[in-house]
Amino acid sequence: MADAARVYAEALFEAGEDKGKINELQEQLAQFADAVDADRELQVFLFSPYLSSNDKVEGLRRAVTGAEPEFVNFLELLVEKGRMPEVFRIRREYDELWKRANRRLDVTVTSAIELDPGVVGKIGEEVERQTGEKVELSSEVDDGILGGIVLRVGNMVLDASIRTRLEKLRKSVASAA
Q: Which residue from 60, 92, 88 is spatially nearest to 76, judged by alpha carbons?
């Protein structure tokens, strides 16, 4: 059975596609989730099982102004179905759908030392060239990999780190003995 957060994200995304508003809905969902995440009182209000759905919907209507009607309806549906606590997971799922629709790809370059931004940029350009997608590039430092790089492209990992090579060598020597 499909994850509820994914189902809700897909429903909002489809509504956005129908109205040509996927970007606006993504932005509004992000703003709402960030606001809820930052405000403990708002979390208590929206997530409390002791408050009625009607009270929550009324509070939402007063708090959320200027938003797309599809987004307001979506929030009201979450309240009515008791799914508001899943808004953070729904946001992550929606973001993934948005990235796929806009041909965006997350790429993370991990190295043992800080890489020159030019080198990281060239890696991103090469991934863009090979995939045909727009790359959202980030760089991390992890001294645990000893040397080389680990490249995460979407959900695929290319591990060219010295640590992994040494581990493979160790296993090879151990199996030969």
A: 60
Distance between CA 16 and CA 28 in Å, rounded?
12
Residues across the chain: 177
Residue 157: helix, strand or coil by DSSP?
A: strand
Q: Are 106 and 154 contacting, i.e. CB atoms less than 8 angstroms apart?
A: yes
3-state SS class at 148:
strand
SS3 category, 88:
helix
Q: Give the tens place of pLDDT for each residue, 138-156.
A: 999 998 888 889 999 888 8
The secondary element (H helix, E strand) that includes residue 137 is: strand 134-141
Q: How would you label 14-47 residue by residue, b for 16+ Cβ within 10 Å and e otherwise?
A: ebbeeeebbeebbebbeebbeebeeeeeeeebbe
Question: Measured between alpha carbons, how far is residue 138 from residues 102, 123, 169, 172, 173 in Å?
Answer: 18, 11, 30, 33, 36
Which among 3, 1, 2 is positioned nearest to 89, based on CA atoms? Answer: 3
The helix or strand, by DSSP H or E, that contains position 153, with its residue range, turns out to be strand 148-153
- CA distances in angstroms from 37 to 49, 75, 147, listed in the order given: 18, 15, 37
CB atoms closer than 10 angstroms to residue 84: 21
Query: Model-level pTM?
Result: 0.72
Give Cα separations from 55 to 48, 52, 58, 75, 89 (angstroms).
Answer: 11, 5, 5, 13, 24
